[in-house]
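Re: the 414-residue chain
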Amino acid sequence: MSFDVLLISPSFPADNGHFTKALHELAGVRVLGVGDQPRAAMPDDVAAAVDEYLQVPDLWNEDDTVDRVRDWLHGLGIGPDKVECLWEPGVVLAARMREAFGVPGLSVAQAHAFRDKELMKTRLDAAGIRTPHHYSATTSDEAREAAHKVGFPVIVKPVDGAGSADTYVVRSEDELESALGAVRHVGRISVEEFVEGEEFTYDAILSDGETLFENVAWYRPKPLVARQNPWISPQAVCLADIRQPDIAPGVELGRQVLRALGLRTGMAHMEWYRSEKNGGEAIFGEVGARAPGGRLSHGMNWSCDGNVFKLWAEALVHGRSDQSMQKRFNAALVFKRAVGGGTHVSRIEGLDAIMAEHGDKIPEVDQVQPGERRRARAQVETGRGRIGARPKDLNGAHELADRLGNEVKIVADA
């Protein structure tokens, strides 16, 4: 008898394909894919891991999609055992399907709290968890009033966004007006306290309330700073020791957040701040009931010589894993952007010398190659503009990541 998993968007974003393949490789598992791209558009190895596939005309027309999936499953004679989506926009859709098909997991009410940042923080406030001071706004006047209540500097961002898209640091009235103009297309925004300090992640894989794996990554610099300064090569460093005194409070914060929002099985990606004030207080940022973006899952793998894609699949299907996920390395992802005014890459500078010296500590180099068209700035974090590094000590990881960031140049002058 098969274990049937209905998986929304099995091949997009790119890392979803790794989770899909890991699920398919488990004995007795049947992967039922639903998406709005043709099966032929999937990479061959991902398409081969999807046993049945339904292409829908508009994945985000939730009523229509649920109806189409219901009819499709009825025709197949299948009732899914699990419904999952590892992509932020599909978290509520997955919850709707669970309720429609009587499948356990995150409910619609719980899923909304992972998508609506204002609702998310309100629920965490009620649980006594430290969040940035915050208000939601649907008009410019409401946003101005909220900014004055919080006090500059503030963050202005969509309540249902992902990453740092449409997110602005506002330090003055003039900057507020500029930000409000930039987010005019957003229906509802969050205006919240800007926390001065370092930014980290808390990532976890759970099964029925038991935590099977935890990770903390250090963003160097904050994603918002990197987005606003395109010359920076941003880094994410998955830490080997998450029990150290300045990190442990963030780990405990992450555990409290997931308990308060009701996630018991699946993967979570949270961002938090270590404040420069109050002795390094850990302050919540936001959380998603899904896998991280920016290829961070690969950094987790390098940090422990494990496989988080397989671990997620095992947690979902078996509720346990025999993998050793012990952290051994500080694993850095360094994202590169092309420099120069050309449309095509002509050469890569500085990499050969670093590889000759530290090649044994660099598990992956995935760069745009000479002769290829340079990638748009928005594609870099999910494209091939990244290099991995994993020394065992944290200072070594920072030094090597900084060298990769500063010395390696992808030159596009052709």
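Residues 380-384 have pLDDT under 50 and may be disordered.
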